[in-house]
Amino acid sequence: MSSLPLISSCFCCRRAEPRNRQLPPIRSVQAVLFDIDGTLADSDPLHYLAFREMLAEIGYNCGNPITKEFYSSSLSGKHNSVVGKFLFPDWDQQRRDQFLDDKEAHFRRLAAKQLEPVAGLHRLTDWIKQKGFHRAAVTNAPRASAEQMIAGVGLTEFFEHVVIGGECERAKPFPDPYLKALEHFGVSAQNAFAFEDSVAGLGAAVAAGLPVVGITTGNPGPALIAAGAAFLIKDYNDPALWRKLK
């Protein structure tokens, strides 16, 4: 995916704008921002499977497989540096990094065979292109995984920019990645909105002042509403979304 313009540093000193739970009028929208994992594709089941298998192999939790609830509440949407410290507080950083690198490689093997776009995704991306809005992917996924997922759902040419949280001073749940995307386009948060599926990601977008559509592919709706979602959709064919986009 060498054709993608990629952002390698983050603007993190700008003050976040006030929270706004309402999408801006469509006539004023200039940019639409997307998370990747769980938002472009329902990839959380594959991340869960990769974590479950690899953690069981090393005897984590006395060898008992982690639950989906544990994954959703403690791992989903979080940057790998945070995940590593949470799972392995007694390990040195090199050992944590190696485990998480291996987990990402396992995830990519699974995703190469099983990744599917969220229903209605291309209907929405076609609408965004027709409107002429800027579009960026903003993710905590490592670059290799992010690029594979974007290509896997057929959106290599769709995104104008990709912001990688790990290449920012602070990843999600801090607002820096979203602020960087807005800064790159020269767009105010009041003239943009985002799609997110995790509490950590939603919190980052809300902290950047963005209205956020929560998609319930892998996390419970009440948690997304509590994190600041403007409203919830099950996928991109959801009538609730298209009523808002009129």
From TrEMBL:
| Matching InterPro entries | Beta-PGM-like, HAD-like_sf, HAD-SF_hydro_IA, HAD_2, HAD_sf, PGP-like_dom2
- Give one GO molecular function term: metal ion binding
Q: List the SUPFAM superfamilies.
A: HAD-like
Which Gene3D superfamilies does the entry link to?
HAD superfamily/HAD-like (3.40.50.1000), Putative phosphatase, domain 2 (1.10.150.240)
Keyword Kinase (UniProt): no
Does the UniProt entry include the keyword Nucleus? no
The alphabetized UniProt keywords are: Carbohydrate metabolism, Magnesium, Metal-binding
- Kindly list the cofactors needed: Mg(2+)
Entries under Pfam families matching the protein: HAD_2 (PF13419)
The protein here is known as: Haloacid dehalogenase-like hydrolase domain-containing protein Sgpp
